[in-house]
């Protein structure tokens, strides 16, 4: 058996890619320096695979920003508004981040993960302008003298996740819709299959042996028509391909319509055997084509727990009953970019117990080598018992509390309209109240003070005095901008999940366990290894101090239980929902403390609420029910007068709007800028009768939004939502922005809100 990998982290062991790309944006390094450093990082990844004995080495899986954006630009899928930028690299970054003249392309979650991709806009002169897989293959071959397996997003997934322009019914206006829901889907898929065939022919002519086309969309619940289109598409993709071994790789769930899609006219199929047993059950039921290679995803790419290699070896032995061993290639089940690079920096930082049961990307390579050596040379496999180590951190009191609420009804008793009336009378807020999502710019000075405090270079008193000064400044800025509801700025928080995890029992934190979220944005997911509880208040000090500085309401800012769960590496020895309830109970204690301290608005953010939604529809209702319950559990004991806000970003709302309504938050803030306000259509079809904060400008872009852009989104909102329910805010927190962008952007936002407020009050 051979081994291969896919999706090895792109960021570098110490986030070298982030640093050099951001330096390029600031004009601190040249384009040549950027390309040179990026090439060095890319080759180091390839060498890592070679050093770990990987048999089939990937290429074309490196990106300066996003691999879907790479694919789009490869096929000249460039929106008209960016055509004025002549330099291709600057145009590429502009599509991701926007410019003064052009709003960035929409960004959304990649399937059920915390990775964000740039959504392609299919229009214009689509053609192959650069065969990126071929260029990457040649580069690695010339640099290291090896043949590689080029990896590329497959045509079905690429088109399925794209958006297209269509005319609105009964209107001359055009709108963007998902390609998968468009009448143009079949046509665009047919166009791209021809282009992919061209790419493959050029690779075959080069002498490439393997190519991998990633088709995670094949694990979704596809209709019979879509399955038929997929089969037809691959007949065209594979036309006249004779010697090139094309592997269609799937992950994150079991292959849908297995009996049909497993017979795609390709040389191999990649299946995920980690996520559940469904792919194995399908092989037991239907078998596997004798003429195909099986790329068996047998080690996790998404969670950090060490693989039980003996159990995995038994799985591989069973697969060998259906597939010739020489036709099995062992691999990671999902892309490795969901994991940190290496466990090495954590030795001496994390407890030895945790080191003994964790595996990051590098350790996954070693696991694959161990499995291959076991089958090739009879090398013994080690014993791994994750559950017995985790069981040492059980908290019976927490477990009993969860058991009591597991089947209980939770939620606020008073209906929303009655609560909201009390709240707004108490708060004395105007029509279209303005606020922000929570965080304000975290400058280099803020990050330095925080690092110095953690390293013991300054005292706790010095650090807390510094944070107080930052809070004083941000309260003053917000009052000068005339925002209606203020925040304390979150200067003490590195990350919205990490901050809370550090103050809760049952969480561990890495020293260098960075994972790419989007572009150059990296996060360090906490590791939930034990039962969760709150030993002390977490946010009280800063929030109460901020409120003491102003007569305007200051929001208490918390991260919700579902988001903390979904953005952590959570334990697998108990049901996921039980971990969510444990976190919710801990947060409820914090909410009650904020209420006692006089805080009248508490925001419990759930940007990852939809992210955890299972990809199979049959599994979604159960998740949504317990996710809603966990959110409600976090605050259901507060008085009616306490206004509960939540925030969701870059979510597809349409299919879960009913459950968002069931969350019963008094106000939910949503992204409406990159999607050009299209998300509001969900509220046109569903009578959403709670408060809605409209995210009127994109904080992931450095551009300052024009007032007319903000006004357009708000006027569209007023068509679907009662004016007394609309709030006005940016689409997300402002932590990654600079003050020079933040203040004028918020000023424009407040100006528009005031102008419309006056108009609506006449």
Description:
An 8-stranded parallel β-sheet has the order 1-13-12-11-10-9-6-2. Strands 18-19-20-21-22-23 form a 6-stranded parallel β-sheet. The protein has a 3-stranded mixed β-sheet with strand order 5-7-8, covered by helices on one side. A hairpin with a 6-residue loop joins strand 3 and strand 4. It has 762 residues and is of the alpha/beta class.
Outline:
With 762 residues, the chain is α/β, with parallel strands linked by helices. Helices cover 41% and strands 13% of the residues.
The CATH topology of the domain at 403-761 is what? TIM Barrel
Highest-level CATH class of the domain at 403-761: Alpha Beta
Biggest sheet: strands, sense, closure?
A: 8 strands, parallel
Return residue spans where pLDDT drops below 50 for at least 5 consecutive residues: none
Shape: globular
CATH-scheme architecture of the domain at 403-761: Alpha-Beta Barrel
* Structural class category: alpha/beta
Alpha carbon gap, first and last residue = 76 Å
pLDDT averaged over residues: 93
Beta-strand percentage range: 5-15%
Number of helices: 27
Helix content: 40-55%
Name the strands of the widest sheet in spatial order.
1-13-12-11-10-9-6-2
Number of strands: 23
- In angstroms, what is the radius of gyration? 26 Å
């Amino acid at each position: 058996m051979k081994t291969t990998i896919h999706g090895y982290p792109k960021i570098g062991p110490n986030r070298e890619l982030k640093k050099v790309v951001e330096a390029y944006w600031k004009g601190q390094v040249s384009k040549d320096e950027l390309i040179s450093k990026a090439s060095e990082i890319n080759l180091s990844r390839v060498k890592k695979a070679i050093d770990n004995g990987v048999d089939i080495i990937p290429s074309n899986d490196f990106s300066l920003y996003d691999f879907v954006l790479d694919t789009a630009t490869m096929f000249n899928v460039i929106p008209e508004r960016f055509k004025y930028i002549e330099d291709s690299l600057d145009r590429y970054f502009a599509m991701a981040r926007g410019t003064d003249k052009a709003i960035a392309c929409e960004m959304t979650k990649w399937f059920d993960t915390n990775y964000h991709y740039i959504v392609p806009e299919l229009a214009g002169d689509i053609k192959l302008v650069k065969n990126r897989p071929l260029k990457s293959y040649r580069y690695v071959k010339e640099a290291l003298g090896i043949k590689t397996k080029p990896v590329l997003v497959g045509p079905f997934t690429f088109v399925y996740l794209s958006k297209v322009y269509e005319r609105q019914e009964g209107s001359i206006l055009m709108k963007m819709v998902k390609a998968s829901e468009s009448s143009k889907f079949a046509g665009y898929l047919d166009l791209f299959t021809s282009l992919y065939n061209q790419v493959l022919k050029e690779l075959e002519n080069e002498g490439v042996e393997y190519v991998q086309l990633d088709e995670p969309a094949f694990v979704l619940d596809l209709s019979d028509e879509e399955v038929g289109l997929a089969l037809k598409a691959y007949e065209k993709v594979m036309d006249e391909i004779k010697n090139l071994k094309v592997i269609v790789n799937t992950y994150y769930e079991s292959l849908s319509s297995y009996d049909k899609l497993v017979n795609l006219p390709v040389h191999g199929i990649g299946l995920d055997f980690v996520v559940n047993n469904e792919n194995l059950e399908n092989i037991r039921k239907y078998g596997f084509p004798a003429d195909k290679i099986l790329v068996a995803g047998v080690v996790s790419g998404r969670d950090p727990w060490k693989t039980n290699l003996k159990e995995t070896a038994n799985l591989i032995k069973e697969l060998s009953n259906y597939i010739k061993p020489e036709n099995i290639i062992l691999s990671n089940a999902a892309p490795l970019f969901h994991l940190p690079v290496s466990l090495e920096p954590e030795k001496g930082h994390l407890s030895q117990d945790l080191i003994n049961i964790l595996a990051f990307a590098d350790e996954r390579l070693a696991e694959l080598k161990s499995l291959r050596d076991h089958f090739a040379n009879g090398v013994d496999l080690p014993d791994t018992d994750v559950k017995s180590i985790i069981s040492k951190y059980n908290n019976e009191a927490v477990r009993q509390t969860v058991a009591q609420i597991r089947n209980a009804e939770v939620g606020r008793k008073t209906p929303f309209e009655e609560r909201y009336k009390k709240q707004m009378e108490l708060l004395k807020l105007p029509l279209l109240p303005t606020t922000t999502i929570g965080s304000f710019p975290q400058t280099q000075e803020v990050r330095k003070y925080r690092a110095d405090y953690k390293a013991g270079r300054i005292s706790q008193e010095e650090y807390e005095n510094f944070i107080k000064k930052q809070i004083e400044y941000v309260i003053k800025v917000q009052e000068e901008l005339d925002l209606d509801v203020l925040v304390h700025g979150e200067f003490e928080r590195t990350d919205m999940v990490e901050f809370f995890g550090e103050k809760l029992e049952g969480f561990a934190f890495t020293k260098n366990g960075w994972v790419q979220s989007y572009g150059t944005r990296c996060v360090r997911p906490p590791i939930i290894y034990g039962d969760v509880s709150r030993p002390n208040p977490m946010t009280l000090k800063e929030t109460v101090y901020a409120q003491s500085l102003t007569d305007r309401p200051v929001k208490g800012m918390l991260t919700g239980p579902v988001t903390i769960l979904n953005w952590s590496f959570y334990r697998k020895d108990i049901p996921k929902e039980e971990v969510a309830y444990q976190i919710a109970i801990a947060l409820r204690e914090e909410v009650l403390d904020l209420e006692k301290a006089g805080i009248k608005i508490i925001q419990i953010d759930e940007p990852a609420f939809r992210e955890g939604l299972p990809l199979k529809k049959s599994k979604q209702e159960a998740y949504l029910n317990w996710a809603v319950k966990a959110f409600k559990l976090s605050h259901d004991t507060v008085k009616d007068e306490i206004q509960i806000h939540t925030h969701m970003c870059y979510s597809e709302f349409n299919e879960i709007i009913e459950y968002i309504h069931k969350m019963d938050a008094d106000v939910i803030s949503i992204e409406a800028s990159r999607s050009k306000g299209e998300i509001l259509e969900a509220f046109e079809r569903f009578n959403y009768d709670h408060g809605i904060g409209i995210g009127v400008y994109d904080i992931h872009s450095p551009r300052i939004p024009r007032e007319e852009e903000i006004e357009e989104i708000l006027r569209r909102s007023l068509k679907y939502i009662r004016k007394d329910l609309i709030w006005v805010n940016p689409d997300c927190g402002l932590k990654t922005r600079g003050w020079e962008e933040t203040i004028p952007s918020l000023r424009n936002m407040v100006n528009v809100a005031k102008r419309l407020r006056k108009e609506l009050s006449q």
